[in-house]
Amino acid sequence: QVQLVESGGGLVQAGGPLRLSCAASGSIFRINQMAWYRQPPGMQRELTASITDSGITYVADSVKGRFTISRDNGKNTVYLQMNDLKFEDTAVYYCQMLVQVTYLDYYDKDYWGKGTLVTVSP
């Protein structure tokens, strides 16, 4: 089994920064894609940013230029640096990882963290 644990959420004033972390533990051969999703109050979960094992990144237009995703493969950890936060960034942020559990696995398995709340005050 693989567990993902997010940290770094909290209350921040508009314009401020926050850094989220998500660490994976358990039976892991390789982590291919890592991603951050967010779910604002009353809305659907949406992809915010992703990063492949080769470092190719995607960032949603709504956060481009303000959010940066990165990963530390040695620590099985993904980060989301959020700068110039806006009220509309308020959401529960979830990390997701596509994990090859053993070298025999042909398909990746999809794992999610429980989420961390980010609240941006106006």
Description:
The protein is mainly beta and 122 residues long. A hairpin with an 8-residue loop joins strand 9 (91-100) and strand 10. The chain starts with a strand and ends with a strand. It is 0% helix and 57% strand. The model has no long low-confidence stretch (mean pLDDT 96).
Helix-strand blueprint:
Blueprint: E1 2-7, E2 10-13, E3 18-26, E4 30-39, E5 46-51, E6 57-59, E7 67-72, E8 77-82, E9 91-100, E10 109-112, E11 116-121
Parallel strand pairs: 2-11
Antiparallel strand pairs: 1-3, 3-8, 4-5, 4-9, 5-6, 7-8, 9-10, 9-11
Instruction: Evaluate the radius of gyration.
Output: 14 Å
The SS-based structural class is: mainly beta
- Oligomerization category of the chains in this entry: single chain
Shape: elongated
Count of DSSP H/I helices: 0
For the secondary structure, the number of strands is 11
Uncertain ranges: none
Ends: how far apart? 40 Å
Biggest β-sheet: count, sense, barrel? 7 strands, mixed
Q: Average pLDDT value? A: 96
Tell me the helix content: under 10%
The fraction of residues in strands falls at over 45%
Write down the secondary-structure element order.
EEEEEEEEEEE
Short description:
The protein has strands at residues 2-7, 10-13, 18-26, 30-39, 46-51, 57-59, 67-72, 77-82, 91-100, 109-112, 116-121. It is mostly beta strands and 122 residues long.
Q: What distinguishing features does this structure have?
A:
57% strand, single chain, four-stranded antiparallel beta sheet, 11 strands, 122 residues, 0% helix, mainly beta
